[in-house]
Amino acid sequence: MQKTPFVLFGVPFHNVTFEEAIQWTIDRVRSGRPGVIATVNLDFLVLAQADPELRTVLREADLVIADGFPPVKLAPFFGPPLKGRVTGSDITPMLAERAEKEGISIYGLGAAEGVAAKAMEVLKKRHPNLKVAGAWSPPYAPLEQMEHAEILRRLDEAKPDILFTAFGAPKQDKFNHMHVKTWNVPVAIGIGGTLDFIAGVQTRAPVWVQKLQCEWLWRWGTNPKRLTKRYASNIAFLMRAVWLTMQLRLGRNIPAAVDSSAPPHWAEHGVEYHEFQSLEKLPEISAAKVVVDLRDAEWLESNEIGALLELSKRSEKTVLLHAGSRIRKLWEFSKLSDGLPLASNCTEALALLG
Ligand code: UDP
């Protein structure tokens, strides 16, 4: 599986098929190293614009899959195409099927009272040898007021291999992120309303509606009161995104002014300096602070931003220097500066690196 994600509007997506995502999950369970999967749809992109914590949660997730058509359709405008959508609602039963074959256990957490247990019952009926480690639907509460200690106690006792967390987005993903470094759950995945679908308390759109890429319309029709505001903001975001794409693709790039009279001795400041020429040349860093000079880059493809994001994760801090106007505009819209800040000149870069 390709490790470098494609970054769309500040959110990384891993370019995987269903089969690759399932295999990743099994490998991760076998590795024993806890990890999280986020299933990201258009609504996440909108929420992430206004929520720095959610941006961090998604950038630090171990696997991010495109749960919907909008990210898949937008991807080619910003770099290589994504292989396709990998929906939480579809991958959950597929994971249960594979878990049975692998002898791996699952746990359903969330949804309304009794729904998680009912969903696990349905899966067990479909796959008699499936190991269900447990199920619990804790009382609804804001994230900070949830019974974290009780949930962790139950998980500790049940020791599931795969945890299906269904508190809705972004609560479920913040919850998984909050605990992944301390709990012993090998893989936790946020699955939204999937337990409702499996338990049969909500009906998913018929396959022909899904094929027409209109599942969101179906959901809207079945729950207009709750979803109208969400979909209105999603459509507004999509329109702004298309407008930005046109501006960036057709507009002129104004390169950054480069003051080359007295470049600082980066090494003396404990900083590793690199020119950004191509993705392949991105280095294995050895210093904690890194500067990547973008003076020759007119544009950054989504996979190149993904590589820079990976680089920033490996370093204490990475700063991008001399970005032109197109990259700056993209950064501003995508809120990428909190992970990968831009500096106009060397002095600013050094100040940002502290
Ligand atoms: N849910 C929950 N706790 C909450 C809020 C929601 O367990 O505090 C459950 C809800 O019952 C549903 C699931 O989260 O089963 C997903 O909700 P939603 O339909 O909003 O998911 P999304 O559309 O965000 O994927």
From TrEMBL:
Keywords: Glycosyltransferase, Transferase. It comes from the Bacteria. InterPro entries: STAS_dom_sf, WecG_TagA_CpsF. GO terms for molecular function: hexosyltransferase activity. This is WecB/TagA/CpsF family glycosyltransferase.
